[in-house]
Amino acid sequence: MGSGDVEAAVADAYRTQWAYVLAATIRVTGDIDEGEECVQDAFSRALTTWATTGIPANCGAWLTTVARRRAIDLLRRRTTHERLIPMFIESDQNSTLPDGDAPLIADDRLRLIFTCCHPSLSFETQVALTLRLLCGLTTSEVARAFLVGEATMAARITRAKKKITTSHIPYRVPTAEDLPSRVDAVLSVIHLVFTTGHTAPSGADLMRRDLVDRALELARMLRTLLPDEAGVAGLLALILLTDARQRTRTSGDGALLLLSEQDRGQWDRGAIDEGVVLVREALNRRPAGRFALMAAIAALHAQAPTWEATDWQEIVGLYDLLVVVWPSPVVALNRAAAIGFADGPQRGLDALDDIALDPVLTGYNYLASARADFLRRLGRHDEAVAAYREALMLCDNDVERAFLQSRLDELDT
Amino acid sequence: MSEYLVLIYDNETVMESAGEAAFNKMMTGHATFGEKNGAALRGGNALQPTMSATSLRRDAAGELHVSDGPFVETKEALGGYYVIEATDLDEAITIAGQIPSIDGGVEIRPIRVFD
């Protein structure tokens, strides 16, 4: 067995099995930090052990057995008194310690997801914990993803773990009554990871591929664990359909390409087909949720043979439904943009004027750039130039800035 | 099982002007809450309004100062509390979510247990 093969296998297991192994181990330790230590320990043992014994057929099961055995050792070393106050309350497990060699049936990842995305934790903390505990990102990786200092992120994660312990946030799948709202919180977290990756809020690259991949993995994980949830199908579809265009979003030299300029032949047909099936499933549930509707819009774009053949009326109709279930000014802005393509730039501009005073949109560069585009198409040259300048001032992503600058240059010549 | 202190915050000005009917409705609400959750309740009381509060602080020299008013002045004032027992935070939220309030809300604080 080459050491390169073993390292690759361990790295692969880390990416695909981390959450599974950790979730099962936390059930034994009753404590997140101890669980993480045992799992780290199991991964470092894998590096040495697999080099001599070979890579096991089921790496996840091997790692879980080793991590849980280590956890049970730790538990036995604790005093009886300490053992009487487990930090996570188990409502549906018998009182005997689980045997580390017993076959694993239950998938504990769902418990871990709902603990990380508990509504008593702030949204940014939910996102940080999910990346840390379910994706296995290091604290510094999580910090980099959200552009905060490592010390700040470490403090945030430590505080969150402490709150989970002291408040007794349960390690459990919520009751049927609470499930819809709790699932929605998880979907919001995954969606934020995706949007942050899809268009990086700042920096040189348009995308943060690592975050998009994490969001896709999380959505797939949730789909496996909650196959009957329409919202989960909707979010997975949205990610697949949006990401299917990733190869064509920039030109060879890294410049931004609009939907109208992209080479549709390069879109990932496999992802689109998978997404379309999921959209149909998600839309079967009434009323359709926000992710299902956004995915349906993405599906219409993905299936249009050309930009000109896009069914804009249908897209506006979907946005009309979306603003009802998700009354967000950003959704209203996208609706206005769609109206501009369906009914002409003047109607789009009118729709933008209706929402322009919303304080949430102040400082939102897409409002200024949408305005700029409508004004440009209407031939209102000076106003378009002013709007492009405003958008440039508000935009922090280098690729998007270059695009706005090029539009401005065209108008100036 | 863990114990939680549930602090009930309400806007005193709104409470005072809400009238007798609203007050009675709230009291009935508390009675219903008590009947429904008797098994989980470990204690609780309504408090006199904050104008009756007295605060004590020691200055840097260690001298005690008595002053009029609550420790922290906020729009929503602490008006009462319950001590409840619950298996976990989710159950505590389910119980505390039934506490009536006119124009405020409740805060759940786990009670610290010293080893």
What oligomeric state do these chains adopt?
heterodimer
- Structural class of the secondary structure composition of chain A? mainly alpha
Rg on CA atoms of chain A, Å: 24 Å
Q: Assign the CATH topology of chain B.
A: Alpha-Beta Plaits
Q: Which chain pair has the greatest contact?
A: A-B, 15 and 13 residues
State the share of residues found in helices of chain B, binned by percent. 25-40%
Query: Beta-strand percentage of chain B?
Result: 35-45%
CATH architecture of the domain at 3-88 in chain A: Orthogonal Bundle
Shape descriptor of chain B reads flat
Tally of alpha and pi helices of chain A: 19
Number of DSSP-assigned strands of chain A: 0
Structural class of chain B: alpha+beta
Question: What shape does the CA trace of chain A take?
Answer: elongated
Question: Regarding CATH, which class of the domain at 3-88 in chain A?
Answer: Mainly Alpha
Q: Helix fraction of chain A? A: 55-70%
The strands making up the biggest β-sheet of chain B line up spatially as 2-5-1-6
What is the CATH-assigned architecture of chain B?
Answer: 2-Layer Sandwich
On the 0-100 scale, what is the average pLDDT of chain B?
A: 93
- Residue stretches of chain A low in confidence (pLDDT < 50, at least 5 long) are 89-105
